[in-house]
Amino acid sequence: MGFNLRVQLFISLTLLVTFFSKPALAVNYCGYGYASVYVLDQVKLAENQEISQLNYCVSINNGAKTLTSGAEEITYSFAPMIPGIPGTPVCGTLYDSKDCRVADPNATDPLPADPKITPSASGSASPSPSGHPAGSPYPCPGGGGPSALPSASPAAAPSPESGTYSKSAGLMPAVQNPIGLHITDPNQIPSHTSSSKTAAFMPALATGSQLYSCTTSSATGTALTEREAAAAAVGNHVYSCIRDFYNKFYGYVLYRIQLPPKTVLNIQNAYRPDLQGLTRVGHPFIQMYETDLPTFEAVFQQSNSMTVSFRTMAAYNGDDSLPPRSLGDDCGATAGDYAGLLASMMTTSNKGFPNVAITSWQTNMLLAWNNGLSAWTAYWLSHDPEVYKYAGFVIREATNTPCGGSDIACNRGVKLNNVMMADETDNSRDRVFPPRSPSYIQNAFPSDWDAAGDWAAAIFYDISVEYGLGDTKTNMLLWKAISLIDNSDNFTIRDMGSKILQAARLLWPSTINPGQSIYEAGLMELLRSRGIAIGSESDFRQNITPPLLTTTKMVSTGFGSSVPDTMPSIDAAPGTASYFENSYVQPDAGPNDYMVYQFLKYSKYAPCQKLMITDGTFTDTGSGISYNYDGNYYDEATGDLSNMLLIAKGNRIDWVRYKALCDYESIAPWYEQMRPFGFRVIGAYKNGFAMKATRLNNYYGSILYQLSIVDPSLSTLGAASYTFTITDPYGRVVPLSYPNATASTGANVTYWALRDQPLTIQITRVRAGQPDVTITMNEPSSYLDDPNRTHYLDHHAQ
Question: Is the model's pTM score more than 0.85?
Answer without folding.
Answer: no
